Amino acid sequence: MRVARVGWRRYLNGVNFGVVVVILFVMLPIYWLVISSLKQPAALGATPPQFFPNPLSLTNYRDAFSTYGFGVYFRNSVVVTIATTILVLFFGSLAGYGLGRLPMRGKSTILITLLIISLFPGIAVVPPLYLLERTVGILNSYQALIIPYTAFNLPFAIWILRNYFQGIPKEMEETGRIDGASPWRIYWSIVMPQALPGLFTAGVFTFTAAWTEFLMALTFNNSNSFRTIPVGIALFGTPFNIPYGTIFAASVVAVIPIGILVFVFRKSVVSGLTSGSVKG
Predict the structure, then answer these.
(1) Is the pLDDT higher at 275 or at 104?
(2) Contact 251, 37 (CB under 8 A)
(3) CA-to-CA distance for 46 and 29, rounded, in angstroms?
(4) Which of 64, 131, 178, 211 has its CA 20 to 30 A from that of 233?
(5) Does position 128 have pLDDT exceeding 80, yes or no?
């Protein structure tokens, strides 16, 4: 018995050590990004490298906003990402509810089609989408990104929400019908509150995908007034001068919203993913 306890304790110590190693491996690049953004330009290429810059400097952050117009890129990303997330959650929740709760023919065909669409490489559809948007006349606008972002993120959101809706007890809807509630009232007041973890999961993934997307943003919006963060940071500097410190500072600001979102909704995201993996 004592030998078993000793073996179990060694196993736990080994697991804890492995967890610490993984955390350090993941956090080291983030730490290096942050401290590099706080270094003075002359200290970025110092040998040996400075792991604790002294003095700390906000010059890179000031240059990102004042010299390179990072504030415009940040605003554009916020508008495009929030609009995309709202549209995906609205249409995805309706489709997910219909596929998960209502009697419907061809459910399997619809779900397989959605799965195929979600696996389709985005680069293959960028040229025809560009020609389509040029014909319609929406290039260099928020709509040029919101519409394709919504279309490409909907299949994944529908899958998550459909699986989550299937896990909600049907007795709750039946109680609402007995009380005389309309189908829309049942959907909005009874089902949706129970599906919040699934909505948060789909919302976080949609927000992250739209916030970090590069290829479409580069292709559809070449006007500086509508560029988003990934494209804006990629175009910092000139062919003869790359402001690494400013790029690091802008990158730190860019990852803050995603970090806050994941931290705030981390439990809901885990719950939504777990539900989607075992139901349906």
Answers:
(1) 104
(2) yes
(3) 18
(4) 131
(5) yes
- Top mean-pLDDT range of 15-19, 103-107, 138-142, 270-274: 138-142
State how far the Cα of 38 lies from the Cα of 262, in Å rounded to an integer: 24
Distances, alpha carbon 111 to alpha carbons 104, 119, 167, 169, in Å: 12, 13, 17, 22
Q: Cα–Cα distance between 124 and 269 in angstroms, integer?
A: 30
By C-alpha distance, which of 69, 39, 65 is closest to 52? 39
pLDDT at 230 over 50: yes
Residue 279, pLDDT score: 45
From 35-49, 118-132, 157-171, the region with the lowest mean pLDDT: 35-49
Q: Output the six-digit token pair for 55.
A: 């003095």
Cα separation, 51 vs 220, in Å, equals 40
**Count of other CB atoms within 10 angstroms of residue 86:** 14
Q: How confident is the model at residue 276 (pLDDT cuts 50, 70, 90)?
A: very low
Q: Among 164, 166, 141, 159, which residue's Cα sits nearest to residue 206?
A: 159
